[in-house]
Amino acid sequence: MLTKLTGGRVYDPAHGIDGQVMDLYIRDGRLIARPGDDEKISKEYDLRGKVVMAGAIDMHTHIGGGKVNIARMMLPEDHRADPVAHSELCRAGCGHVAPSTLTTGYRYAEMGYTAGFEPAILPVNARQAHLEMGDTPIIDKGGYAMLGSDDYFLRMLTAKKDQNAINDYVAWTLHASQAIGIKVVNPGGISAFKFNQRALDLDAQHAYYQVSPRDVLKSLSRAVHELGIAHPLHVHANNLGVPGNLDTTLKTMGASEGYPLHLTHIQFHSYGTEGDRKFSSGAAAIAEAINQHQHISADVGQILFGQTVTASGDSMRQHANAGLANPNKSVIMDIECDAGCGVVPFKYRDQNFVNALQWAIGLEIFLLVDDPWRIFLTTDHPNGAPFTSYPHLIRLLMDKSFRNDMFTKLNLDAQAMSTLAGINREYSLYEIAIMTRAGAAKLVGLHDRGHLGVGAAADITVYTEDADREKMFSKPDYVFKDGTLVVRNGQVVQVTWGSTHTVRPEFDRSVEQDLRGHFDRYHTMKLDHVKVSDDEIAEGGRGRVQVQPCLGRREKTR
Amino acid sequence: MVNFVGSSLLDSVRIKDVTCTACGMLCDDLVVARALNSNTLSVVEHGCSRSAALLQHPPAKPSARVHGKEVDHASAIQAATALLQQAKQPLIAGLGTDVQGMRAVLRLADHIGATLDHMNSAAMLRNTLVVQQSGWQVTTLTEVRNRADLIVAIGTDIVSALPRFFERCVWVEATLFDQAPAERDIVFLGGRHDDLGFASSPDGRPAQVLPCDMEQIPELVAALRALVTGRSLPVDQVAGIAMQDLQQLAQHLREARYSVLAWSAASLDYAHAELSIANITGIVSQLNQTTRSAGLPAGGSNGDSSVNQTSVWTTGYPLPNSYARQHPDYDPWQHSSAQQAAHADAVLWISSLDPSRRPPPSDTPTIVLGHAAMQFEQEPAVYIPIGTPGVDHSGTAFRCDSVVSLPLKPLRPSPLPSLSSVILDMEAALHASQKGDAHAD
């Protein structure tokens, strides 16, 4: 079957295409070069006047795994306000802050997103993350495996094990967890909390292991680089949400000694201590540092006002924030000598000084970072706001007068502490396409997604141009997933199952010997049962595993 | 594939690293022998009374039955489908299955507008309500094994719920953090237990026992919470336990580096037991102001944790819940089997792990998708035998800590269909008859 998309205005930053009118051709789920004149077009879509982009990619969204399911279980009151009935095509579920898996897939697709990446897969909980993502239809999935507070790694670090041995363990974890990247959350801090430490700054010592977060970052960022995987170490830095954490974040940028780092939900890590209330925006300094350091990328973790729930591996900081819970309940867990988690519902209010300034800080960072290839559009779903608010966020970035109207409604003290109203930048469609497509695919390491070149998967979103960008991005005309029309006029018209993207760097399999002994001696499950198989992911026709290429292993880069 | 690793005798094969779903601990270190001539299984290593009961049923393939009469599989599917199709308020209960079985159940329930309830939901709900009302701070088995220096079991001996708990999580050879496991302190608070020898340390130090009747646990945990919070109570004893003993326990908890407070929701079997659990987790919360402490919900059976987790991610809600209004609804009182018994006009009862869990007696037409060894006092309208996940076919199960899930592998070739394949057959029959209806219109 040959499909032609005719005459759309194409934004494909991976190929430098900025609003050029072009025809696209799809066969067998892939974009192909213009076929010969003798080849029959089976289906043609007239896209004249429409905006065409690759399907959007959410590179950091909590869509699967234990803490997301705890958030769901905790919040029946939120689900009740957004029931989703079944239709001819789609199954029932619920929406808003912690949607059911099925509704998550449908709503992402209906918004023109064709992939989402779960950023905090605990290796011992990887099976659950994949089970949940396996019940998330249409979109592609994948995730980052969490290391850095697991006792096996911290023991290696304390024992000053050779970097190659650490690299093998990191690679083993990627394979076992079926992940595409490595994440570290509050480096060392989740473990330190189990030893009753309540804070851990970058150069503080873990009370038991006598290593610092800086040691963890150095080792893991180097491992990721030497394994040759595309996605840089994904870092949720120490001191999340703490006034003054700006300094920790700036120091963290240097902690990897030049190895690439991705600093996630950086808004929550960009706080100063100026002003009467000892809480201020560090956005200018953070943005300036990102602009200066080519090895750093970040996603924002924008907050938007209303009810949400924060779900994080950072048990230390979530425990500290549990007193702010709204509604007043929280779940905090220590998990399997592997990691932890904390789930705390939040309600961000525009008349609250701190919340209003958080909102402004996120937007300041978006607008002050020059390079759209190194800054990414996220709300850290659902921590800053549910993903369904992305069209609103895009409008805030693209429409200065709208942004300033919103700003004037904020808490007045917060307004006085922000430079936002003085920033004139408006994102272009091309820049939005970088952030949400080309840049995201490059960052995650999706070689055949996020662009519209020949050979790319035909994940394509078509919008009607509208000055109201929120409206435009809320309801695409068409969404194609692997060449199949799945959404028309913002409504699912066909349910498909996407792929799970992983990466599999080479490693020395003998790493399992010691690891198996460790599990038998200290754990309560067998090492082989930690591993998630391809069959488990593909079970029941729920998609398949797609292994993305690695650059190849590098030895001893330092 | 079956993991037939290990030595093979002439008449049997040994299967290593078998996962047992008999309780919420999901031990995955069992060694099981399968007799080659009969496919009978026996637990050779790391068994317990419950694993033997789960795994040692002789293989059987009873016929499906409709009103007690043996029929072929297709006829039974037709009869079951016809009953569900006529029903206006179907109830799917029992739900003794795994993740894959529950996935199929949820798809069917969505299609026919069924209400869903698990046979253990009354106990599960005691924990669920605490999560939904106040939240909690809890831990998992490997953390307990390596960190706990004080374990307080409240209203439970733990081993009734998790038979190998002390073997696998307490009196272990080594811990990660140089703690000598034998130095751990164990306290049984509330309840009355016969033999607690298993809780004595390897060097013979017995556990501390502070017994009371189960009905007095509410006042006991409330008092302990008050003491841990620093309040004094002007009484000499609570629930027959001397105030001095309780004060010492409170002090012990404050001084412990990582205390674990365990309870079993099933054994807290009295009205509003969720308030007792909230007091236990309230103690944990208070202790975490200055030291480390964590709760441990011990228990689970018949796939309750697996089924609940799958329900939560698919519908947003734990069990019981309902699709009667075309979207998931959650009213744990209204949707409980006890309430639904009066309203349901068809019951689909599922029990694939334990043949003794039969549907409650009822006049409502009942379909049972059940274990091959099930015997009935009241023959259901339809009975279709199904395999057991982790014995007859593969699957996935969750542990009681709701974090670790394990792959279940078949242990023998089996003619029994899985629950999900039977539901697929029923859905095919439903679609076929609905198409037929449309044609007739």
Short structural summary:
Chain A: This is Formylmethanofuran dehydrogenase subunit A. In chain A, 33% of the residues lie in helices and 23% in strands. With 558 residues, chain A is of the alpha/beta class.
Describe this structure in words.
The complex is a heterodimer of chains A (558) and B (441). With 558 residues, chain A is of the alpha/beta class. Chain A has 2 domains: 53-496, TIM Barrel (Alpha-Beta Barrel), CATH 3.20.20; 501-548, no CATH class. Helices cover 33% and strands 23% of the residues of chain A. In chain A, helix 6 (163-177) packs across helix 8 (213-227) and helix 10 (283-292) runs parallel beside helix 12. With 441 residues, chain B is α/β, with parallel strands linked by helices. Chain B has 2 domains: 64-120 and 302-402 and 415-440, 3-Layer(aba) Sandwich (Rossmann fold); 125-297, Dimethylsulfoxide Reductase, domain 2. In chain B, 32% of the residues lie in helices and 21% in strands. Chain B is built from 12 helices and 21 strands. Chain B has helices spanning 49-55, 73-86, 99-112, 121-133, 141-147, 165-170, 217-228, 243-255, 273-287, 304-315, 337-340, 419-440, and strands at residues 12-18, 30-35, 41-45, 64-66, 69-71, 90-96, 115-116, 135-138, 150-154, 185-189, 208-210, 237-238, 241-242, 258-263, 292-297, 321-322, 346-351, 366-371, 382-386, 395-398, 405-408. An 8-stranded mixed beta sheet of chain B has the order 5-4-19-18-17-6-7-16, with helices on one face. In chain B, strands 11-10-9-14-15 form a 5-stranded parallel beta sheet, with helices on both faces. The radius of gyration of chain B is 24 Å and the shape is globular. The relative contact order of chain B is 0.19. Chains A and B meet through helix 1, helix 2, strand 7, strand 8 and helix 4 of A and helix 3, helix 4, strand 8, helix 5 and helix 10 of B. Chain B: GO terms for molecular function: formylmethanofuran dehydrogenase activity. Chain B: One of its GO terms (biological process) is methanogenesis. Chain B: This is Formylmethanofuran dehydrogenase subunit B. Chain A: This is Formylmethanofuran dehydrogenase subunit A. Chain A: InterPro entries: Amidohydro_3 (IPR013108), Formylmethanofuran_DH_asu (IPR012027), Metal-dep_hydrolase_composite (IPR011059), Metal_Hydrolase (IPR032466), Metallo-dep_Hydrolases_sf (IPR050378).
